[in-house]
Amino acid sequence: MGEVYPLNYVAEDELRTGAVVEIVSTIMRETGQNVNPRNIRVINWARSLYDVATYPNTAIFSVARTPERDKKYKWVGPVAELNIGLIAKKADNIIIENEQDVGKYKIGIVRGSAPEHILISKYGMKASQLNQLKDDLTQFKMLDADRVDLITQADTSASSGLQQAGLDPGLFEMVYVLQHVDLYIAFNPKTDDMLIEKIQKALLSLKEKLANGVSRYDEIMNLYYGENRISIRSY
Question: Is pTM, for the whole model, over 0.85?
Answer without folding.
Answer: no
